[in-house]
Amino acid sequence: MFRRGTARIPTALWIPMALAIMAVTGCAAVGPDYVRPEVPVYEVWNTRLDGDANTGETDVRTLAAWWTTFDDPKLSELVGRAVKGNLDLKKAKARVREARARRGIAEADLFPSLNAAGSATWSRIISDTGTDTTGDLYTAGFDAAWELDVFGGVRRSVEAADRDLQASEEDLRNVLVSLLAEVGLNYLDVRIYQDRIAVAEDNLASQDETCRLTEWRYQAGLSDELAVQQARYNRENTRSQIPLLITGLEAALNRVAVLLGEQPGRVHTELEGREPIPVPPLQVAVGVPADLLRRRPDVRQAERQLAAQTARVGVATADLYPKFTLNGSIGLEALALKDPASASLLLSGGPAITWAIFKGGAIRQNIEAQSALQEQALIQYEAVILGALEEVENALVAYAQVQLRRQALSEATQAARKAAELARHKYEAGLTDFTNVLDAQRSLLSFQEQLALSNGNVTGNLMRLYKALGGGWTSPAGSRREHGT
């Protein structure tokens, strides 16, 4: 029987031909061999580093556990719970297991396959003369096949699966980096909201005293009702801000709980006490841009995805070449189960070659498609690098500038507090009208609110800088593994 694309060659000719092809190809896998692309980056950061940030070599252990630099036991505890319970992290771990299993599936094609089969057939033949003939046939045996990976299509497939596994491991680390940063930032939001609520309540108490003072002066005939009403709306305006702040605090607390893999409300009790905003360390070493490319898991993931896609070009290229297979089978055939001695032994085996000679150009189009995907993966790799550099540069600028803002707001708050005291004393002495007291109290509340936010932003921007530098991707029990080319 003729089968398109398949030819059976006598063993005496097949074996020398296969050996000749293997000698010519040197058993090398077809398709491009992956070489890690060199992406040039600047030797120093574009942002001028001064103050707390410097280009000193980053301590890998410190960066891996950056949350410990804030010396906040509760933050460290929450981070540990998130690593154990977060659902996104569990899903990323499951993706790693999936990729590892798929690599095993691809690797299985390197080995022979063995199948067992058995059948029982009953037949009945009725001739024209009315003769009725019946019979049984029982067969059992094993079939084996082994494709010789002469042109490396299977090896390229294993190579792609192995690099997909490495990419999934980097994805897990990337999820971990984002998770730890989110835990830190939302915990910080809790402390910021608590600070802002305390500021609003302190100002509300002060404005309540001022309101009573205006009422007393009005009753004593020392001022008109206008001052009383101004004091009241100023006080109630401050009171109206507190529900909004409580709403934000509740949302931050619920978000922390969900990040830990727990139900909303589970961390309210343990975080309800007001604690100071975590204080950042005095010095932060950010290294140089080249360090970033070796450390950021998203960059490493994109590079592994490029390597995997390069191997898939080889898988597609291997379809241009013939496939050599060794086949064999052994079995028994009997007419009755009661008489196994009458069974016949069946043996067969031999080589086979299959070559897709014509498919309307589909094979070459598939190679072109896989090459285009490789080009896209390279562009994506370069884009991820640019995005990583941009994130660090922005974080460096934000961290530096927010410290200058905090210093200015601190001085402005001190001046506003002094002005509010002076205005109040002058009003009590009848030396100024209530408008000056009102303006001073409003300014004080505004500056205190901005200062509380600025204090949190200093710590928050440092957390974002740690995240941008790839901090936190090495778990306490994990180890770093560099990928080869």
What does this structure look like?
The protein contains eleven helices and seven strands. It is α+β, with helices and mostly antiparallel strands and 485 residues long. A five-stranded antiparallel beta sheet has the order 1-7-6-4-3, with helices on one face. Strands 2-5 form a two-stranded parallel ribbon.
List keywords for this structure.
single chain, about 475 residues, alpha+beta, five-stranded antiparallel β-sheet, two-stranded parallel sheet, 11 helices, 7 strands, elongated
Major sheet description: 5 strands, antiparallel
Number of helices: 11
Residues in helix, %: 55-70%
Q: What portion of the residues fall into strands of 2 or more residues?
A: 5-15%
**Average pLDDT level:** 85
Looking across the biggest beta sheet, what order are the strands in?
Answer: 1-7-6-4-3
What is the terminal separation in angstroms? 47 Å
Order of helices and strands: EHEHHHEEHHHEHHEEHH
User: Shape, please?
Assistant: elongated
Point out poorly predicted stretches: 1-9, 475-481
**Quantity of strands, as a count:** 7
Report the radius of gyration as a whole number of Å: 37 Å
Question: Structural class of the helices, strands and pairings?
Answer: alpha+beta
